[in-house]
Design goal:
disordered N terminus; 11% strand; 6 strands; 10 helices
Length: 250
């Protein structure tokens, strides 16, 4: 058990150290031993083998099983898709994501691209497709933050599909995350499950936690607002006098 914990801690430390180089905007890969190798350019084939240009004409081929992950600075094609996603142009995003994913999935962008894909599919009321996209995204995520976002997406898709038990299992995993965003999401997601199970009192309590314990800023704003609207619906249905007080909250 101690060895497993040590290995996990070492993997986290190595990943954080490697990802810190994102700011340097140089391609790199992390080998099986955790060593970061910077390069002039890195490309990947369909099998995930890397072609690494080290400079001065030196080129190396790294097989998929011989490295943990690779990263290249955000390519223009990824940036263009991100812009489509951020402005809610999900149709064009979904029409164009697959070839970009195929090109960059092994270069640090597969997890993010398919996370966006899953969120776009959820917005278009396609939870089955979204769940499949989030599952694929998990295979390519290169940071704990990405993995947490993907788990949140999977939970939302499972809730839409009324697969509450599977959603509960993911929420149990997320309990250890030291993140206000994850905590607020967990309260709100649990509230949705309880509301659907006609356990209104418990659902109200979970929604209240999401609304009252967190400030409406950044990524928390959307989570908190969704919980607030679901809370208001329950309070209105019951004719609860707390409705007006909650409605007036920012």
């Amino acid at each position: 058990m101690k060895k497993n914990i040590c290995r996990k801690l070492l993997a986290i430390v190595l990943t954080v150290a490697a990802l810190a180089s994102h700011a340097q905007q140089r391609p790199f890969y992390v080998d099986r031993g955790g060593r970061r190798v910077e390069a002039e350019n890195i490309t990947a084939n369909e099998q995930g083998d890397l072609r690494v240009e080290l400079g001065d004409g030196a080129i190396s081929t790294i097989r998929r099983n011989d490295y943990r992950f690779a990263f290249v600075p955000k390519p223009d094609r990824v940036a263009a898709l991100e812009e489509l996603f951020n402005r809610g142009d999900y149709g064009r995003f979904l029409d164009n994501v697959q070839p970009v994913f195929s090109q960059y999935r092994y270069l640090g962008w597969g997890g993010r691209l398919y996370y966006w894909k899953g969120e776009a599919e959820l917005s278009r009321e396609q939870p089955e497709a979204a769940l499949s996209s989030f599952s694929t995204a998990e295979s390519f995520a290169i940071s704990e933050e990405e993995r947490e976002s993907i788990k949140m997406g999977k939970t939302k898709a499972l809730l839409e599909l009324r697969r509450d038990q599977e959603a509960s299992e993911i929420l149990a995993e997320l309990k250890t995350a030291d993140s206000p965003r994850i905590a607020a999401f967990s309260f709100a997601a649990k509230g949705r499950m309880l509301a659907r199970q006609q356990r209104a009192d418990e659902a109200i309590l979970e929604f209240l936690k999401a609304v009252l314990l967190f400030e409406p800023q950044g990524e928390l704003r959307e989570i908190r607002e969704d919980a607030k609207q679901r809370l208001l619906a329950l309070l209105e249905e019951r004719g609860d006098p707390a409705y007006d007080r909650i409605r007036q909250l920012d």
